[in-house]
UniProtKB/TrEMBL annotation:
<dbReference type="InterPro" id="IPR000683">
    <property type="entry name" value="Gfo/Idh/MocA-like_OxRdtase_N"/>
</dbReference>
<dbReference type="InterPro" id="IPR052515">
    <property type="entry name" value="Gfo/Idh/MocA_Oxidoreductase"/>
</dbReference>
<dbReference type="InterPro" id="IPR036291">
    <property type="entry name" value="NAD(P)-bd_dom_sf"/>
</dbReference>
<dbReference type="Pfam" id="PF02894">
    <property type="entry name" value="GFO_IDH_MocA_C"/>
</dbReference>
<dbReference type="GO" id="GO:0000166">
    <property type="term" value="F:nucleotide binding"/>
</dbReference>
<feature type="domain" description="Gfo/Idh/MocA-like oxidoreductase C-terminal">
    <location>
        <begin position="144"/>
        <end position="351"/>
    </location>
</feature>
<protein>
    <submittedName>
        <fullName>Oxidoreductase</fullName>
    </submittedName>
</protein>
<feature type="domain" description="Gfo/Idh/MocA-like oxidoreductase N-terminal">
    <location>
        <begin position="10"/>
        <end position="129"/>
    </location>
</feature>
<dbReference type="Pfam" id="PF01408">
    <property type="entry name" value="GFO_IDH_MocA"/>
</dbReference>
<dbReference type="InterPro" id="IPR004104">
    <property type="entry name" value="Gfo/Idh/MocA-like_OxRdtase_C"/>
</dbReference>
Length: 351
């Protein structure tokens, strides 16, 4: 990159000026002197202007291709709705930019695969903001798992559940624009965290069941109001992923489900030597009928978004740090698609 070679700050542009662009991407980029936020692009020019005004008044655009050609950024954050992740990421990669894309990678596995192949062809970094894997808890537990502390892990339970947490903003209840509901929005986060800790074992197949029982009847909850007449996503999905090594991963995810807890975002691992909980990280076993805690963090790390963005930028600058890369993005997109396919058809889906 020319700017990196000359020592000048890397030029950053953001596509999509919503909440995550503000709270995560722009706020992180502006903490670094080796980065310069030069453009914000959104189909709603006023929205782009509001975000730009908050972060030093970079240029404001409503046309992605025109912005890329004129501004020539080194780094692009894609924070647009799910339906546009593929289009905007491909435009940025083909313009010679490194890309940090919000989850999910795309709407289909085929799109995610083409995004990966384009990043490879262009020699650019493509990362996804699966930030839960960047918690200190996740890193610590993965190291212990890889070292064999749990033995053979044969059952993993990943849960991303809300009692009534339908997002009252954005397009989260629109299947056409979002691709789905809680699975593709919050379930994919715990799925990534679980797969990362396990080392992304090869998948044999999946089964799943989804339900739409509450979102079309209620209209308000923890995160505001929504229109039940335009609610086209699932309330909840329950799936089982079968690995070639004989283990299984059970995934439970919901926007609305009658449970006592307002929210559950966690993963449990059961091995033949010990078990573990992800947040906060804890490893335990049984000793003659009594629980023996082998390792425990008192509080879960909540600086995950910062660490995710930091890893991406440092990787772009040449540091050998782990990112949620394009290859793993393809795997996760394949799993999401297979879970939805199984839920819709009632069939076992082989991978």
């Amino acid at each position: 990159m020319k700017s990196a070679m000359t020592g000048s700050p890397l030029r950053v542009a953001i596509i999509g000026a919503g909440q995550v662009a503000d709270k995560v991407h722009a706020s992180y980029y502006c903490t670094r002197e080796d980065l310069e936020l030069v453009a914000v692009c959104d189909s709603r020019l006023s929205q782009a202007g509001t975000l730009a005004e908050k972060y030093g008044n970079p240029q404001v655009w409503d046309d992605v291709q025109a912005m890329l050609q004129a501004v020539k950024p080194d780094i692009v954050s894609v924070c647009s709705p799910n339906r546009f992740h593929y289009e905007h990421t491909m435009q940025a990669l083909n313009a010679g930019c490194h890309v940090m894309c919000e989850k999910p990678p795309a709407m289909t596995p085929e799109e995610a695969l083409e995004m990966r192949n384009t990043a490879r062809r262009m020699g650019k970094v493509l990362a996804y903001d699966f930030h839960h894997r960047f918690a200190l808890d996740t890193q610590l537990l993965r190291d212990r798992v890889m070292a064999g502390a749990l033995g053979e892990i044969y059952v993993t339970n990943a849960r991303a559940l809300r009692r009534c947490g339908v997002p009252g903003w954005g397009v989260f209840t629109n299947k056409q624009l979002q691709g789905g509901g809680p699975l593709i929005d919050i379930g994919i986060h715990m799925l990534d965290a679980a797969m990362y800790v396990l080392g992304f074992p090869a998948v044999k197949g999946v089964t799943a069941h989804s339900f739409q029982k509450i979102g079309t009847r209620k209209h308000s909850g923890q995160f505001g109001e929504w229109d039940p007449t335009t609610y086209t996503v699932e309330d909840a999905l329950f799936g089982t992923i079968e690995f070639h090594n004989g283990g299984i991963l059970r995934l439970e995810t919901s926007f609305a489900l009658n449970i006592p807890e307002q929210s559950i975002m966690n993963v449990n691992f059961c091995g033949d030597r010990a078990g573990a909980t992800l947040f906060p990280a804890q490893i335990y076993t049984d000793r003659d009928g009594e629980l023996e805690v082998l390792m425990q963090r008192e509080k879960a790390d909540d600086n995950r978004h910062f660490r995710s963005m930091e890893a991406f930028v440092n990787h772009v600058k040449g540091d050998a740090v782990t990112i949620a890369d394009a290859e793993q993005g393809v795997v996760l997109q394949q799993l999401v698609a297979a879970l939805y396919q199984s839920a819709e058809t009632g069939m076992y889906v082989e991978l």
